[in-house]
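Re: that chain you flagged

S.,

Sorry for the slow reply, it's been a week of failed gels. I finally had a moment to sit down with the sequence you sent. For the record, here it is as I used it:
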Amino acid sequence: MLVCGVDEAGRGPAIGPLVIAGVCIERRRLPRLKRLGVRSSKELSAARREELYGEIIDVAESHKVTRVSPGVIDSHVRRHALNELEAERMARIISALMPDKAYVDACDVNEERFGRAVSDRLSGGCAAKIVSAHRADETNTAVSAASILAKVRRDRAISRIRRRHGVGSGYPSDRRCVEFLASHASRNAEPPDFARATWLTVRRIYGLPAPAPARTRGRGRTARVPSTGPRQSPLQFSRPPRL
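Prediction finished late last night. Pasting the structure tokens below so you have them in one place:
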């Protein structure tokens, strides 16, 4: 039986791409990944993740990694559709790998709802059973492997940006990231194309407007949902980025 794990890296940073990876492997070969030391990327050093990257690819039947640019992320955040973007890209990866069963790390507070969102977007005749769970990278070996591939590719992308611009990790909590943005804003009216213009830190530094509030229907009238914070319609954040 072919199983697939899918996870992302880089949802929260203000700089750089979101990277989503899928690893497809015969179920009987999962113990081999465990013996190699595959576990959640958060539990491994950068050097160890790099070592495991090639080993995972060698053991897996197939894999696929996709990058989502800050511009695409911003366009979806403005429509309050970041979770839908992740569901769509995860579905594309699963459809390309064609497993019998796929495990995804849910970004929606409702695991089942996110699983349905991914399943509804499968294409090309893919009929994989989708299992969606929070912290799947910590409990499922295939998802752990995907988390490593996604993190390594995200780190490589940030490394290339950092060598040219000194942006640090790209997270809003990183002083070097904030200092870079402030310095860039002193000379430019718009953020660079590798920064997420809808993130709160970036908006404040450049004086950019917040995305328009989402609108939801309720009892015959339109209700407004705040444009920042943990709510997102129709899928809601389980781990909200600092927008």
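What I noticed first: The two ends are 40 Å apart (CA to CA).

Talk soon,
D.
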